[in-house]
């Protein structure tokens, strides 16, 4: 796809869904089959679903939206997001618009270095056992690489061996834990399966050189050798909104950031906002989002206290935002080449590889966080959020078609976004329609 694709699609959100699809179809030259995948019509064949998991009985759908306006390292990205929560797609698009007008996000990502863990017990003297393992490093690496010759041929594979001695959880009378880390460059893959093969494959050699016994061997989802970072720098004047000057909005965001740095109770919600964006793209692009979540939160605790993944501060007339987190993503492996909807989602992303994908993910997380803090630090999120939530409430109350918007607007106007109120409004809109009356009554 040529680099003339823009993520700045003015008025896109006002178009009917079919016109949005037509526009995207033209931009990305999508086939009718690919458009069907975006529509979600038969996205995942039940036969395929049955091959993917156990006890399959069907498939499960989520709304798929497109995050717009994102510009990372000078390149535009349209971001597919699978998410049930209102406001998430709008927030990313809104924040990205402000950031693109300030020069866009700048991002970078480490190479795909993952960690395989092997736990050794009954090894005797920890210092000697460590020496024996490190003396056998080349042998261990060669054995590790023998399991994945194609990976080595691609330029990836096992790179290093590290040993960690950890205090016994039972106290000084317990055997300290001896953990061997195999560092593996998994290239375009997230890598879990290939790492697990390596960890299991090198265990007998580690037992042999230490004289110990290996029980557990698997990857670590704390992928802290595979970090992605994004920053943005927004002139204060561009933040003016809600009849407030930019300085005040920026101060609200910086104060919110300080709060999250000091307080894990706040940091958990701050990071939930970051993950609102990242999880949605992860699901749409077939990533192991449980791994991303586990890695992000473990990384947030790395200093001994749970902290925010992103921070904001004022610098020389600008609001500066930064995010750093582990992102074990893949453009191959797992369901990525299997799920046809994922293929179309990745086509829209137009990334050349997994590192670029990680950069976009990091920028999405920072954008999402910016949008939330901007509202939280000024007028609060309820106004915007309730407007979106009102539609859900209207549907729950039985509204359909054009009535959804009507009921939602009246709910917001009434300042009372509740199902009971929605039923009342719906009944007053269509008092004589028996079908609706029944729905209204039965909820
Ligand atoms: P796969 O095993 O499905 O696929 C990875 C394979 O793709 C590689 O081993 C490689 O095989 C092949 N490949 C082809 N081209 C490339 C390339 N350019 N770069 C890298 N590999 C390439 O997936 P992963 O090993 O990535 O594992 C991810 C899956 O594991 C996810 O579904 C995840 O849910 C699951 N999982 C996750 C766990 C966790 O704790 N998070 C635990 C267990 C499983 P070859 O070299 O032979 O061509």
Strand order of the largest sheet: 3-8-10-9
Contiguous helical run count: 17
Shape: globular
Most strands sheet: 4 strands, antiparallel
Annotate the secondary structure layout.
Blueprint: H1 17-28, H2 32-39, H3 46-52, E1 64-72, E2 75-82, H4 88-101, E3 106-109, E4 113-121, H5 126-135, H6 137-146, H7 149-153, E5 157-166, E6 177-185, H8 192-210, E7 213-219, E8 227-235, H9 246-262, H10 264-284, H11 289-300, E9 310-315, E10 318-326, H12 340-349, H13 354-376, H14 382-396, H15 402-414, H16 419-429, H17 434-442
Helix pairs in contact: 2-12, 4-13, 6-8, 9-10, 9-13, 10-11, 10-13, 14-15, 15-16, 16-17
Bound molecules: NADPH dihydro-nicotinamide-adenine-dinucleotide phosphate (NDP).
Offer a few descriptive terms.
443 residues; alpha+beta; four-stranded antiparallel sheet; 17 helices; 10 strands; 18% strand; globular; binds NADPH dihydro-nicotinamide-adenine-dinucleotide phosphate
Would you kindly provide a brief summary of this structure?
The protein has helices spanning 17-28, 32-39, 46-52, 88-101, 126-135, 137-146, 149-153, 192-210, 246-262, 264-284, 289-300, 340-349, 354-376, 382-396, 402-414, 419-429, 434-442; strands at residues 64-72, 75-82, 106-109, 113-121, 157-166, 177-185, 213-219, 227-235, 310-315, 318-326. It has 443 residues and is α+β, with helices and mostly antiparallel strands.
Overall description:
- Mean pLDDT is 93; it is low at 433-443.
- Helix content is 49%, strand content 18%.
- The chain contains 17 helices and ten strands.
- A hairpin with a 2-residue loop joins strand 9 (310-315) and strand 10.
- Strands 3-8-10-9 form a four-stranded antiparallel sheet.
- The chain is an alpha+beta fold.
- The chain has helices spanning 17-28, 32-39, 46-52, 88-101, 126-135, 137-146, 149-153, 192-210, 246-262, 264-284, 289-300, 340-349, 354-376, 382-396, 402-414, 419-429, 434-442, and strands spanning 64-72, 75-82, 106-109, 113-121, 157-166, 177-185, 213-219, 227-235, 310-315, 318-326.
- Helix 4 (88-101) crosses helix 13, helix 9 (246-262) crosses helix 10 and helix 10 packs antiparallel against helix 11.
- NADPH dihydro-nicotinamide-adenine-dinucleotide phosphate binds next to helix 7 and helix 8.
